[in-house]
Structure formats: structure tokens, C-alpha cells
């Protein structure tokens, strides 16, 4: 285990979530799976308690802690994409696997984890500042999944 990891609370599905992320994103994998050595408030001896996994190079631990805490948008993974095809692949996989769409490139997976599927062209427009950033930002504000062609058109004016 790395010195610093992100710990994500799941009800009972940490291993399923880790496998989903590992299958979807490059530079992702599932590591060690820990089983509970005895009963605990939300589970039984032998249940999967924790799962080490990596999502797009970020080391994480999934903790099956039960239904006490729920996720919200205060935490999200931001995935930079290089094309509409890559944007569509991630977005459609997350939303199509029991997730839900949100606004401005955000969606949630079926476990309630928020994702920002963000084409690099949008971030480049924001970095440019001025009128170009405003046009791209205004275009983004009308979208759920980001449309790369519309962001590029907005950048050009």
C-alpha cells in the first residue's frame, strides 16, 4: 500500500467497483483484497472488507463500510480525454452501467461516485482566458456530456 491513498467508502461493492474501474480506464488495476477477520457492524467474518485498486494512476482503497455514509459531488475523479470517442467511451460506460448524467461533463457511477469526463480541449480553452474561455465556458454550461466539436467551435468564435 502506498503512503498516501484515497479511501472511498462503499456499502458492500468495493470489489465490484474496483473491477469496473480497472476494466474501463488505462493505468488501472485491482490489487490486494482484504477479508474481514471477524464480524463487524456492517458485515460478517470473511466478507470483502477492503480492496486496493488504482484508477488512471491514482491509488485508492475501497472500504466496504456499510450504508452509513453517502457520496456527493464534493469528491470526484476528473478524467482528461483527448477526443470525443474517448469522452463517449468513459461517459457511456459509467452512465450505461447504472450511473446517471449530470451537467457540464459530470456523471455519477452506480455506486454514487462522481466523475468529471473532461476533454482537454475544454481545459485548453479555459487556460486561454478572455473571450475564448468565456465562449467555451458558455457552451459547456448547456451540456451534459461534453461535445468536443461544439467546444472547438466556441473557441474559434
Summarize the helices and strands and which ones pair or pack.
Layout: E1 6-10, H1 14-24, E2 29-35, E3 48-55, E4 58-64, E5 76-81, H2 84-96, E6 100-101, E7 106-108, E8 114-119, H3 120-128, H4 130-140, H5 148-156
Parallel strand pairs: 1-4, 5-8
Antiparallel strand pairs: 2-3, 3-4, 6-7, 7-8
Helix pairs in contact: 3-4, 4-5
Molecular structure report:
The chain contains 5 helices and 8 strands, in the order E-H-E-E-E-E-H-E-E-E-H-H-H. Helix 3 (120-128) packs antiparallel against helix 4 and helix 4 runs antiparallel to helix 5 (148-156). With 157 residues, the chain is of the alpha/beta class. It has 2 domains: 1-67, Roll (2,3-Dihydroxybiphenyl 1,2-Dioxygenase, domain 1), CATH 3.10.180; 71-157, 2,3-Dihydroxybiphenyl 1,2-Dioxygenase, domain 1 (Roll), CATH 3.10.180.10.
Characteristic terms for this protein:
single chain, 157 residues, alpha/beta, 2,3-Dihydroxybiphenyl 1,2-Dioxygenase, domain 1, four-stranded mixed sheet
Amino acid at each position: 500500500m502506498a503512503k498516501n491513498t484515497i479511501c472511498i467508502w462503499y456499502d458492500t461493492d468495493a470489489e465490484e467497483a474496483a473491477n469496473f474501474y480497472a476494466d474501463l480506464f488505462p493505468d488501472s488495476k485491482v490489487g490486494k483484497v482484504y477479508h474481514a477477520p471477524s464480524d463487524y457492524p456492517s458485515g460478517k467474518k470473511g466478507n470483502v472488507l477492503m480492496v486496493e485498486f488504482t484508477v488512471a494512476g491514482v491509488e485508492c482503497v475501497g472500504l466496504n463500510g456499510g450504508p452509513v455514509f453517502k457520496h456527493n459531488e464534493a469528491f470526484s475523479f476528473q478524467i482528461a480525454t483527448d477526443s470525443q470517442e474517448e469522452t463517449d467511451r468513459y461517459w457511456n460506460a459509467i452512465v450505461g452501467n447504472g450511473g446517471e448524467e449530470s451537467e457540464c461533463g459530470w456523471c455519477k457511477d452506480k455506486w454514487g461516485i462522481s466523475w468529471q469526463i473532461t476533454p482537454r480541449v475544454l481545459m485548453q480553452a479555459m487556460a486561454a482566458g478572455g473571450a475564448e474561455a468565456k465562449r467555451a465556458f458558455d457552451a459547456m454550461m448547456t451540456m451534459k456530456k461534453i461535445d468536443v466539436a461544439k467546444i472547438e467551435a466556441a473557441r474559434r468564435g
